[in-house]
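Changelog-adjacent note: as of this version, every example in the card shows the full chain rather than a window. The one below runs 326 residues end to end.
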Amino acid sequence: MMPNFSYLRVNSLEQAVEGLTSPETRVLAGGTDLLGCLRDRIFPADKLVSITRLDKLRGIEETADGGLRIGALTTLTELIDSPKLKERFPGLAQAAGEAASPQLRNQGTIGGNICQKPRCWYYRGEFHCLRKGGTLCYAFGGENQFHAIFGTDNKCCIVHPSDPSPALVAFEATVRVVGPKGTRLVPMEKFHVLPAENVEKETVLEQGEIVTEIVLPKPAAGTRSSYRKVRARRSWDFALAGVALAVAFKGDKVERARVVLSGAAPVPWRVKEVEEIVTGKKLDASTIAKAAAATVKNAQPLEHNAYKIPLFKAVMEEQLTAMAKG
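Full-length structure tokens:
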């Protein structure tokens, strides 16, 4: 059953910020994650502040420098269907298309997607785990076949559930946030929080802050991008292993690369070791093999998820090989 809560539907961002008065007040956009969390009593809510009337937070627009601005209330389906996005940032359009089911993509927003709660069954279940203010991460000694192999800090081994987020990190996106202290810009790479920083938070958002838009800078000339996701069920499931690539070529050599994993860590996991190996090189078989091995060099698998190591290596090899062919 749903908990009792009050409901405020606002007509401006100022009203929304003013309405977020307590830690138990939640922002309602698409609601595809929030309502499920409330129904399952994962966290409390005394008030929902609906921002669905704020049309200024919808849509995809060009920026002065040739990039794109994506309003936080833009649905994943709108990202998939956007000609501008598919032309300039195809990896992000692919990532949006890999998220959830068609029904959820029609309803779910990009702002909500990057802020969604983890899918760990201990967190989503009746366990008072560390992330919910308890004293123990049950996954370390329990069923952990879908959990993280990087970035756990021996505290919490959730995996970040969003597919668009790794692509946004690869494209060096920036998140615009509005709150009681005004507006601030957060690099997407810094938006999510590792367990070592704060085990009870997934993002840097403070009380009363709302994501209003995501800004993508103009991609460098010669950039190719992709997003590949491996999952247990093809129709609808979260990533077992995935990789977002944004690689700029000059001639037949890599001039610059951004490589970010999904299904790997509590945050979108950037693999700088791979970026360093491919930069300045042709993506030939030797370079790709070295990059694939470097993908999992620092992995720390748990008892039941060591299968992710060869899986990530194979996905990286597959995607770099495809990228080399253009």
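Structural remarks: The domain at 223-324 is CATH 3.30.390.50 (Enolase-like; domain 1).
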